[in-house]
Amino acid sequence: MRTMLRHCLLAEVLGTAILMVFGTGAAVVNEQTHALGHGGVAAAFGLVVLILIQGLGHVSGAHVNPAVTIGFWVAGRFPAQRVLPYVAAQLVGAAIGSSLVRLVATKGSMLGATLPAHGAGQAFGIEVLLTFWLMLVILRVTSGYYEQGLMVGLTISATVALEALVGGPLTGASMNPARSLGPALLSGNWTAAWVYVAAPIAGVLLAVLVDRLLELQTPPDKAA
């Protein structure tokens, strides 16, 4: 039985807010103390994603990411009428989370904003690649007999942590429009904000295409 929409939306608001508190919050804490390091911030993102999947996945799917919601919809695995409410809930959650992070941030902090290190063009390409791989992993591990169990959460969260570890210094490794728009809204820094909306959407669309290609099978009578 499908969970009632209001329960799903509450889970998405809460989940996205918590993602911001412990994800971008880790970046803000590291700005002030240098206690976590880049690896620590990447680990924080991976850990919070694991906790959200295990804690809220049975309620809303724990998308906490407009790009993921759009990806599931395009893949035919999410109802169209829920897309806009989910995206709105995620954006509200990101704003709430960033507001909470601002309470512990120093004056002038970017609140964990995602900013290109070497120009918008490179950032766009990197964010497309990162989001493509994240969405492809999500689609593969949530299909068939893989879709239940702790290993799903571990695989997705490990992907997030790995991509944050490698891509973070170049783009902030957002892969999530809500994650980028929350700090932008609260800090007022909209530098290359379009990249962090357009690139994740392009990435998930590419992932859905590749996922479908991976599902194609040669008819038995033409098999080699």
TrEMBL record:
<dbReference type="InterPro" id="IPR023271">
    <property type="entry name" value="Aquaporin-like"/>
</dbReference>
<keyword id="KW-1133">Transmembrane helix</keyword>
<keyword id="KW-0614">Plasmid</keyword>
<dbReference type="InterPro" id="IPR022357">
    <property type="entry name" value="MIP_CS"/>
</dbReference>
<keyword id="KW-0472">Membrane</keyword>
<feature type="transmembrane region" description="Helical">
    <location>
        <begin position="36"/>
        <end position="53"/>
    </location>
</feature>
<protein>
    <submittedName>
        <fullName>Aquaporin</fullName>
    </submittedName>
</protein>
<feature type="transmembrane region" description="Helical">
    <location>
        <begin position="190"/>
        <end position="210"/>
    </location>
</feature>
<keyword id="KW-0812">Transmembrane</keyword>
<feature type="transmembrane region" description="Helical">
    <location>
        <begin position="117"/>
        <end position="138"/>
    </location>
</feature>
<dbReference type="InterPro" id="IPR000425">
    <property type="entry name" value="MIP"/>
</dbReference>
<dbReference type="InterPro" id="IPR034294">
    <property type="entry name" value="Aquaporin_transptr"/>
</dbReference>
<feature type="transmembrane region" description="Helical">
    <location>
        <begin position="83"/>
        <end position="105"/>
    </location>
</feature>
<feature type="transmembrane region" description="Helical">
    <location>
        <begin position="150"/>
        <end position="170"/>
    </location>
</feature>
<comment type="similarity">
    <text>Belongs to the MIP/aquaporin (TC 1.A.8) family.</text>
</comment>
<dbReference type="Pfam" id="PF00230">
    <property type="entry name" value="MIP"/>
</dbReference>
<keyword id="KW-0813">Transport</keyword>
